[in-house]
């Protein structure tokens, strides 16, 4: 009788739990984003700790959303730590890839384009982002020149491609966050979509076309963090047949 009652109680009170991993180069803003998400969605609404230090190892928290628990894995992005990421792939339900929009030059891989003789043409993916639908003078693609410094754009591309090419991430929803949009020197989200993201998706195997989106955020001010969590929430549910949640 006790076991039956316990079982019924568990059934009535349990929720689906999904896991999301935060990836991106070191200094991209993963831990800052994680802090803001915790302050919005942990039951005790803690103040975000914004004086972060580089992550070695992992920070984990479980956000409480109305219809699920969302477990966040915030891992270190330093070069030597990236090989550890793959151990999370098979159990994650979504990937959030965070980009420092102030450390990617002008946002276009123009040297690569010139060498390969390609342009950012139509790509075979369903990436659809939000944000402004035009470019400003400050980020006008026409102003691109091969002498423009590209920051860590190429590194970012290679790392993102490596994540997407791993068979264990196939079909997993991907949210790309163009972070640090509060800064004057940031590259706009539309440009990141048209440059880096389009390029990466052009290389993706047709079989692994995934649900994806690019959103602008400022992890430091918290702008866009709620929308990012909302997107992940809806997509892990849509994808639950491929990657079922655990009950908790
Ligand atoms: N201006 C601005 N600075 C930010 C933003 N997000 C993060 N930063 C700063 O960027 C630096 C790195 O942030 P972290 O969150 O520690 O970066 P990380 O991706 O966790 O770095 P690793 O743990 O080394 O992989 C810190 O100085 C943050 O304050 C943002 O949206 N705007
Ligand atoms: Mg960190």
Structure explained in plain terms:
By secondary structure, the chain is an alpha/beta fold. The protein has a single domain, classed as 3-Layer(aba) Sandwich (Rossmann fold), CATH 3.40.50. Helix content is 31%, strand content 18%. It is built from seven helices and seven strands; from the N terminus they run αβαββαβααβαβαβ. Strands 1, 2, 3, 4, 5, 6 and 7 form a seven-stranded mixed sheet that branches. A hairpin with a 2-residue loop joins strand 2 and strand 3. Helix 5 packs across helix 6. The longest helix is centred in the C-terminal third of the chain and has 14 residues. The chain is globular. Magnesium ion (MG) binds next to helix 2.
Topology:
Layout: H1 2-13, E1 16-23, H2 30-41, E2 58-65, E3 68-75, H3 86-89, E4 94-100, H4 110-116, H5 153-165, E5 174-179, H6 189-202, E6 212-216, H7 225-238, E7 246-247
Parallel strand pairs: 1-3, 1-4, 4-5, 5-6
Antiparallel strand pairs: 1-7, 2-3
Helix pairs in contact: 5-6
Bound molecules: guanosine-5'-triphosphate and magnesium ion.
GO cellular component, one term: Golgi apparatus
Binding site for Mg(2+): 31, 55
Organism: Microdochium trichocladiopsis
């Amino acid at each position: 009788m006790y076991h039956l009652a316990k079982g019924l109680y568990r059934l009535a009170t349990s929720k689906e739990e999904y896991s999301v991993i935060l990836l991106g180069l070191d200094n991209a803003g993963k831990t800052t984003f994680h802090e803001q998400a915790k302050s919005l969605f942990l039951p005790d609404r803690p103040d975000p700790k914004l004086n972060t230090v580089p992550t070695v190892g992992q920070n984990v928290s479980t956000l409480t959303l109305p219809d699920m628990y969302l477990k966040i894995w915030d891992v270190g992005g330093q070069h030597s730590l990236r090989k550890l990421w793959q151990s999370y792939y098979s159990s994650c339900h979504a990937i959030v890839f965070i980009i420092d929009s102030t450390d990617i030059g002008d946002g276009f891989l123009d040297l690569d384009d010139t060498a390969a003789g390609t342009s950012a043409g139509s790509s075979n993916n369903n990436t659809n982002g939000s944000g402004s639908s035009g470019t400003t003078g400050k980020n006008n693609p026409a102003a691109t020149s091969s002498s423009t410094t590209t920051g860590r754009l190429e590194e970012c591309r290679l790392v993102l491609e490596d994540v997407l090419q791993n068979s264990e991430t196939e079909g997993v929803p991907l949210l790309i966050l163009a972070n640090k949009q509060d800064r004057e020197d940031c590259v706009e989200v539309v440009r990141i979509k048209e440059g880096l993201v389009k390029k990466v998706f052009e290389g993706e195997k047709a079989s692994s076309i995934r649900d994806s989106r690019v959103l602008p955020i400022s992890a430091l001010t918290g702008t866009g963090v709620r929308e990012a969590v909302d997107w992940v929430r809806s997509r892990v549910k849509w994808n639950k047949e491929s990657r079922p949640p655990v009950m908790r």
